[in-house]
Design a protein that fits this description.
Layout (H helix, E strand, L loop, with lengths): L9 H10 L1 H11 L6 H29 L5 H23 L2 H26 L3 H24 L2
Length: 151
Amino acid sequence: MTSVLNPLARAPARVLGLAGLIPFVGLTVAMYVDAAPRGWVALAQLAYAATIVSFIGALHWGLAMRDATLDRAALWQALGWGVLPSLLAWLALLAPLGTGFWLLCAAVPACWWMDVRLARTLTLEPWYLQLRTLLSVVVTICLAASALALP
């Protein structure tokens, strides 16, 4: 079976994915700096995380709609899951900061797990899940650390 991933996507996906960690790490560090405006930093972190979680869900739409081998049930599952992270991100933004952080902290590993399932179904190259795993671990740690820094 041929892959649904463009082989040229590996390098830019890695560079851009790793660059996307800069706000997570930077804002997490800022949460622990006494001089930082913690409320603003926390809101910035939560908003960025919500944006990224929505983006992660959208990956399922792009992959599923491109693969003609998926049956109707698999399409409904992939497309349905693709919407759920956006809804969770929206709820996280409406919730109190601490609740929002913990909701997204749980959503990121859930998104990773669903990515693993879809990647196996579509027989994606190993580099995709390796990158998604690294990004998910760092983001989850940053969100948990930020949640713990809240008063």
